[in-house]
Amino acid sequence: MLERLQCGAFTYLQDYADPHTGLVADTSRPGSPSSIAVVGFALSCYPVGVEHGWSTRGEAAAQTLKTLRFLAQSPQGEAPQAAGNHGFYYHFLDMRTGRRVWDCELSVVDTALLMAGVLAAASYFRGDEDGVEAEIRELADTLYRRVDWLWAANGGQTLTQGWKPGFGFLKYGWEGYNEATIAYLLALGSPTFALPPESFAAWTRTYQWENLLDTDVLYSGPLFTHLFSHAWIDYRGIQDVFMKSKRMDYFINTQRAIRVHREYGERNPHGFEGYERDLWGITAGDGPTPQQAAGSALRVYGYMARGAPYGPDDGTLAPWAMLATLPFGRDDALRGTRRLLARYPGVCREDRFASGLNASLVVQGHPWLSEGWYGLDQGLLIMMIENALSGLPWRLMRDCAYVRTGLLRAGFTGGWLTP
């Protein structure tokens, strides 16, 4: 089952990549632009495809090089239709031209996810017989080194969420524990525009340590915020100052967050259809729109970040989410996934999970399902299954000197960081 579903997710990255730019579509829906975060996941997943035989090494290297060349050559600057500025990229890019679309923001965290993929590719492609893999490493280094993390802090201690031409930096920064962990670590490890170590300490001061449903946990509501940085970073046994004070690590914290989500599924305080201890997964993703729920008493939100136990929650579960927790609890992840597939087989078409399921909203006799597929879901699932099976993505980043430097400057010690 794991091989089949992992391969199905991998084919999304092949089917929805532009043949000229290498950019990968945000969703399978017609006209979808590329998400730079999805590109970061794709670059990290091409090595997985090689190891499983879904792609040859030459094919994966060529696809990676095509993508990195395009990113390196795409225009940077303050022009509204550039691809990025100060080494950062806009959240969504046109699949063919690589230019900004939808008046979107220059995204700090999505650029970090992109750069994590860039560094993973450089760590995997270590050969240089034909010059292709050597060029991959050279371009990866160039792309990472030009990201100006200091600029993104806008004179403050912590990172802003982004920037828009004609507007400036967005009002809100990255505060509280969330998926931005990877952004801080890459910003601290930069050899060119590194944040000072104090920035990580300033960020951790915004953390919320809580007791939720009888579990002590570093709080972040949506499940994906506990998974994204873990796709690349092996947090087992390494601790920063905050985690030392709690006598645990971020890996254990994610296990506790999963425990909260499963308990929330069992308690099901709003009485939604389908919630159980072995059927859970509240996170960011697609959900029914108010127009789709017209005539129903159900209040729904469309695409948004949902969370447990504080919400928002409209009865929408992410079908891929349980399996993406495989490294943190194999039995719970597999039991929940099998239960989901048995009860709602429509959530997985062509071996790819839909982004959202809302069993409380029945449409034409069937539970509401998200249309098509989302690239973020597929990429994260590939990486987390592989981390559970072989640990390849974790090994690639453990071998990356920039990542090690970022962790050490953030105050992490112990485990695999010990010389």
What would you note in describing this structure?
With 419 residues, the protein is mainly α. The chain has one domain: Glycoside hydrolase 144 (GH144) (Glycosyltransferase, Alpha/alpha barrel), CATH 1.50.10. The chain contains 15 helices and 15 strands. Strands 5-6-7 form a three-stranded antiparallel beta sheet. It has a two-stranded antiparallel ribbon with strand order 1-4. Strands 2-3 form a two-stranded antiparallel sheet. The radius of gyration is 20 Å and the shape is globular. The chain starts with a helix and ends in a 10-residue tail after the last helix.
Provide the fold topology.
Blueprint: H1 2-15, E1 34-35, H2 36-52, H3 57-73, E2 84-85, E3 88-89, E4 92-93, E5 106-107, H4 108-124, H5 132-145, H6 149-153, E6 162-164, E7 168-169, H7 181-189, H8 197-204, E8 209-212, E9 215-218, H9 241-246, H10 250-267, E10 284-285, E11 304-305, H11 321-324, H12 330-343, E12 348-349, E13 352-353, E14 357-363, E15 366-369, H13 375-389, H14 392-398, H15 401-409
Antiparallel strand pairs: 1-4, 2-3, 5-6, 6-7, 8-9, 10-11, 12-13, 14-15
From the alpha-carbon coordinates, what is the Rg to the nearest angstrom? 20 Å
CATH homolog superfamily: Glycoside hydrolase 144 (GH144)
What would the principal axes of the Cα set say about the shape? Answer: globular
Q: Give the overall pLDDT as a whole number.
A: 97
Strand content: 5-15%
SSE succession: HEHHEEEEHHHEEHHEEHHEEHHEEEEHHH
Strand order of the largest sheet: 5-6-7
CATH architecture: Alpha/alpha barrel
Number of strands: 15
- Secondary structure tally, helices: 15
Give the count of structural domains.
1
- The secondary-structure class comes to mainly alpha
The CA-CA distance between the termini, in Å, is 38 Å
CATH class descriptor: Mainly Alpha
Low-confidence stretches: none
Please name the CATH topology.
Glycosyltransferase
Question: Main sheet?
Answer: 3 strands, antiparallel
Helix fraction, binned, reads 40-55%
